[in-house]
Amino acid sequence: MKFSIIIIGSAISSAAAFGPSVNDLSRKTTALNAQSATRRSILSQTATAALASIGILSSPNAALAEVSKGDSLPDGAAQFKRMLSLKTDLTAVIKRLEEGAVDSSIDKKEWDALSDFMRKVYKGGEDMKAFTKGGAIYDPEKKKKAEEDYKFLQKMAQAGDGPISKEDAIGLAGVLKKAKLVLDDFFELLRDVPDEI
Question: What is residue 122's three-state secondary structure?
Answer without folding.
Answer: helix
